Structure formats: structure tokens, C-alpha cells
Amino acid sequence: MKQRSMGIGGAAVAIVPRERIEQSILFMRGHKVMLDSALAKLYGVATKRLNEAVKRNLKRFPEDFMFRLTAEEVEILRSQSATSSGRHGGRRSTPYAFTENGVAMLSSILNSERAIFVNIEIMRTFTRLRQLLASHADLLRRLDAMQRGYDSQFRQVFDAIRGLMTEREREPKPRIGFDTERVDHAK
Fold it and tell me: What is the pLDDT of residue 66?
């Protein structure tokens, strides 16, 4: 994975690879979100420091921008990623999940040059994912339309087959064996 660098005023800042950002985006409660710990890694800060900055600016983060995970959601994530429990020196509080708008809002409270460029890449990734989902939705609509068309054609074929099967059931079946009444025992 190759990292690009950008800079303002000649200062170079490493930008995180898109794949790393894409892997950090989760789907929870009907939203694409990023967890505070993943964002902190991308920004190059401690999760605790990121959350402190957020808590100082809570008015900027309504529920549709950020929410705290439930214990059940944390357990599901833990089982999916096979991480250790928090009982062994891990995290003591449940993580925050930031929606796309919440991540955009983070850029207004995190002022480092790295945070600015990382946020730009995150916003581009969210936009690209939205475009991919829109194109997939269009393909699904087309497939559904084709399937409906084929369903009627296949229905005709199956109806014809059923018709042939019922015609055979109506035809008298040939008898197998001897007809004892017709045998002449006199000879």
C-alpha cells in the first residue's frame, strides 16, 4: 500500500491509504460509521485525546453525527474481530461511532495538518462508497426488471410442461400382463 503525501507551505504529510479508511468504515444502526479508535489511529492521536476534544465540543455532535455503542454492539464487534475483552487492561468505556457528518465535524475541532488531510481522504472515501452503492442499486433495479421478464417467460415454459404432464395423466394407460379372460383354455 503506497502512501501519498501532500503538504501546505512545503510541509509533507503522509495520507492514509484509501483501503485502510474503507476497512475502518462499519455499518451500524443504519449508518456508515467510523469508531473513535479507528479515527484516532488515522489522525495519529490517542483515542482518549480525540474523545476529550469531542467532549469539549459536544454541542457540535448531535445523535445523527455521533453515538455511543451499546454493550451488545461492542460484544458483537469484539466477536467479529476476535479482540480480547476489556477486562485485561483494554478499553474501559464503550466507543463512540461517528457518522459521515460527525467525521466532517471532527475536522472543525482537530486542527493538525495531518487531521485536515486525513479528513479530506475520509470524506472522499465516503463519497466514493455512496457512488458505488448508487451504481449497485441501479444494477439491482435492472436485474430485478430482467428477472421479472424472465419469470414470465419461465412461467410459460413451466405451464407448458405442466400441461404436457396432465395430458399424459388423462390418456388411458396401456395394460401390462396377461388378460386371463381372453385366453382360450379349451385347446
Answer: 95
pTM: 0.60
Give the pLDDT of residue 57: 93
Q: Into how many domains does the chain fold?
A: 1
- Structural domain including 66 reads 5-138
Per the domain annotation, does 157 fall within a domain? no
For residues 143-154, give the mean pLDDT: 70
The three-state DSSP-derived secondary structure of the chain is CCCCEECCCCCCEECCCHHHHHHHEEEECCEEEEEHHHHHHHHCCCHHHHHHHHHHCHHHCCCCCEEECCHHHHHHHHHHHCCCCHHHCCCCCCCEEEEHHHHHHHHHHCCCHHHHHHHHHHHHHHHHHHHHHHHHHHHHHHHHHHHHHHHHHHHHHHHHHHHHHHHHHHCCCCCCCCCCCCCCCCC
Burial of 32 (0-12, 13-18, 19+ CB in 10 A): middle
Question: Does residue 168 form part of some domain?
Answer: no
Does any domain span residue 96?
Answer: yes
Percent of the chain surpassing pLDDT 70: 69
